[in-house]
Design brief:
Blueprint lengths: L7 H12 L5 H8 L7 H7 L9 E6 L2 E6 L8 E6 L2 E6 L6 E6 L2 E6 L6 E2 L13 H6 L6 E3 L8 E4 L13 H4 L9 H7 L7 H14 L7 E5 L2 H12 L3 E4 L2 E2 L6 E5 L4 E2 L5 E6 L7 E6 L2 E10 L4 E9 L10 H6 L8 E4 L5 E5 L1
Antiparallel strand pairs: 1-2, 2-3, 3-4, 5-6, 6-7, 8-19, 9-13, 10-16, 11-20, 12-18, 13-17, 14-17, 15-16, 15-20, 17-18, 18-19
Length: 355
């Protein structure tokens, strides 16, 4: 099973050339946020050629915009390039694929023919989501929740920062905006990505769109960004342009182990932040929400094996509107609205905060 970008992207790519209006996402970032460094997590989604095990990828470089379906050998897969020489489309044998399966633990994503499945499940960072019994036992995100009072040097926590296998990359905004993203357009979406209705890929895509269309909880401004440019616009419309974007960075990928909080915990400015969580989809889609009752931190950690991490954590000071069956309450054994609930962010998530 695989998500594939068919011939429609050739047309969309041609539209980019004709319009002369398309700025590569990196150029847009630098024009709107000239003094804001780009987190590695975002850079990886713009330069998939630097990250191993890709599926559908989009790269923006000197040659223009490149869209590749499948890694494979050079020249294989569907390749759409937009540059000074116009539009070129080459269709070869598909390379590695992204497999999506629904099982006991939720949804698993397997990148590559021989890759190992990684549990991703329904995002535990959606506040109205009720956790299942399976999640309490099988979801690696369980360990990411903690209480704010425990955030001090010397505190030890069992954690596992897993490398994301959902390597779907950003599409340029002009391309993303030309592709439908709504429940009433599912047949058209499936057709454009060669996804069979009723398949597991189709269910994953449908669930992502549905969650994006659901209303947010009280006090939450939510938005699903289908491009980096739209993520920038939503975040700066909420926080202004004097912002910084931060994400968790870990030296090495390790198994579950004890991490110790080191000296140097830093609280970011203000109590308003925008957290953007990567979703499962054929290209990069981020579930972003702005809340005015949060505190964001960067926390230096050191694992038992010496692995160092600079983790980003968000603490929610008002959880009264959350689903009482949310994973955090079950893990921490607390009730909604009683104490601040904190969670570390996986490496592919981004938090925007005022400088």
């Amino acid at each position: 099973m695989e998500f594939r970008l068919p011939h429609v992207l050739a047309f969309l790519a041609l539209a980019l050339v004709v319009s002369h209006a398309a700025l590569p996402p990196e150029v847009y970032w630098n024009s709107v946020l000239p003094n804001t460094p780009m987190p590695k997590s975002i850079g990886d989604l713009l330069h998939p050629d630097l990250v191993e095990d890709k599926s559908t990828s989009v790269a923006v470089g000197k040659g223009g915009v490149n869209v590749n379906s499948g890694k494979g050998k050079p020249g294989k897969g569907t390749h759409v390039s937009v540059g000074g020489k116009g539009v070129g489309v080459n269709t070869g044998k598909p390379g590695k694929r992204t497999e999506v399966g629904v099982g006991k633990g939720g949804v698993s994503v397997n990148t590559g023919h021989k890759g190992k499945p990684v549990h991703v499940g329904v995002s535990p960072f959606i506040y109205n989501y009720a956790a299942t019994e399976n999640q309490l036992h099988d979801d690696p995100n369980v360990a990411l929740f903690f209480l704010e009072k425990d955030m001090h040097p010397g505190k030890m926590m069992n954690l596992q920062f897993t490398e994301n296998t959902n390597t779907a990359t950003f599409l340029p905004r002009q391309v993303a905006d030309s592709i439908p993203f709504s429940s009433n357009k599912l047949p058209e979406i499936y057709s454009e990505f060669s996804v069979k209705p009723g398949s597991m890929e189709a269910e994953v895509m449908k669930d992502t769109i549905k969650e994006c269309e659901n209303p947010g909880i009280k006090g939450e401004e939510k938005y699903c960004a289908t491009s980096l440019e739209s993520m920038i616009d939503f975040s700066t419309s909420t926080l202004g342009k004097n912002v910084q974007a931060i994400s968790t960075e870990v030296e090495n990928q390790t198994q579950m182990q004890k991490y110790t909080i080191k000296t140097g915990v830093e609280m970011m400015a203000g109590e308003t932040s925008v957290a953007c969580h990567k979703q499962n989809y054929a290209y990069a889609v981020f579930y972003c929400h702005a809340t005015h009752t949060t505190r964001a931190y960067t926390i230096p950690l050191e694992g038992a094996d010496g692995t160092k991490a600079k983790a980003v954590a968000v603490c929610h000071t008002d959880t009264s509107a959350w689903n009482p069956k949310h994973l955090a309450f079950q893990v921490l054994n607390v009730k909604p609205g009683t104490v601040p609930v904190c969670h570390f962010l996986p490496q592919d998530h981004v938090v925007w905060v005022p400088k």
